[in-house]
Amino acid sequence: MGCSSCSSDKNGTPKGCKNNGTCGTDSCNKLTVFDWLSNMDLPAGQEPFDMVEVRFKNGRKEFFQNTEKLPLHMGDVVATEAQPGHDVGIISLTGELVRVQMNKKKIKPEGDRYPKVYRKANQKDIDVWQECRSKEEEIKVKARQIAIRLNLKMKISDIEFQGDGSKVIFYYTAEQRVDFRQLIKEYAYTFKVRIEMKQIGLRQEAARLGGIGSCGRELCCSTWLTDFRSVKTSAARYQQLSLNPLKLAGQCGKLKCCLNYELDMYVEALKDFPKTDHKLVTKKGKASLQKMDIFNRKLWYAYYDEPSQWHELSVDDVKDIIKAEKQKKPVEALEDFVEDKVPDITDYSNVVGQDSLTRFDKPKRKKKRKNRRKPNRKNQNQSKRKKNA
Predict the structure, then answer these.
(1) CATH topology of domain 135-205
(2) How far apart, in whole angstroms, are the C-alpha atoms of residue 169 and residue 157?
(3) Mapping DSSP to helix (H, G, I), strand (E, B) and coil, where does residue 264 land?
(4) Running DSSP on this structure, what letter comes out for residue 122?
(5) Alpha carbon of 23 to those of 20, 91, 161, 167, 186: distances in Å?
(6) What DSSP element (H or E) covers 312?
(7) Domain extent listing, the chain
(8) Would you say 120 and 12 are in contact if contact means Cβ atoms under 8 Å apart?
(9) What's the N-to-C CA distance of the chain in angstroms?
(10) How confident is the model over 35-92, as pLDDT tens digits?
(11) Of 279, 284, 295, 343, which has the fewest Cβ atoms less than 10 A away?
């Protein structure tokens, strides 16, 4: 769907990049799913699942019923039922994996009436669809100008045309409730189509627009992340990250979703650690925790009287100190548990034979100076006198 030249073939398959709608450019590859059941046959007597998953602009996906039992495959451009008219999308999933996706999203395939797949999109459907897609950017700019003129505290983030061009969906973000009744009248009068307004959150806006994260890769929400779990500042504390909102926030202004990826591993590792607010009691004095290395199982403590001198201890040593404290037999000092580290001495061997960094450069040749004798002025004057005589 991201290619502007995705025209269709005679059989209804899209042209463009020749990858049947599953290319890796723009939004064609957004939120794709690998069908790992495609090479498996159904048991004898079982009919194939009649539901398909269709992808629309910016990763919007919906489930449709294949009542006509059309031979649909991933990447086929189809015309689907909509209110009103029809919409155009690309098949993103078929077969039994659709049932798995519906169960994952807690959608019951039985009982409810789902919209239908009308047909495979013909060339006329593709042309109308691409013509509407080409007008979206211009209409978005005009829509923002109208919203600013009406002094509405909202942001038009994206718009989406229906496949037949009979309806336009305006996606907007707003912090407060917005009365856009006058705005809808202005849009209907200006664009001459049916208007639908949909409010989305900041995370959904970032997922629709896409972008590059601080890691240098595409945003997770716009490529593969389908559900948005709540992210708390405690996730950063568990991972020993600095609570800097500029570093922890993503492009949406909220906490980064990737803070939850390794959180379970950190929580599991911290179960064996002593409490961070516990003070170690020794005969020399009390010591507080300064720093910890979770995966190397190291902790650094410092006495209250000597805050600049840290002592490296292992988790097992700290547990022994706490156990002795509970038995009212405190240890002498933390220095007794600190291991004397022997510096690693690496033997250097000169395998090249030369230590100079410029050993491969050509040596500069010294220029030979020619010693030209200057003529004696006395001899010059005598020769001139002889000539004049």
Answers:
(1) GMP Synthetase; Chain A, domain 3 (3.30.300)
(2) 11
(3) helix
(4) -
(5) 7, 13, 22, 28, 38
(6) strand 310-314
(7) 26-36+46-122, 135-205, 229-271, 280-336
(8) yes
(9) 106
(10) 777 777 778 777 888 889 999 987 788 999 988 888 888 888 999 999 888 999 999 8
(11) 343
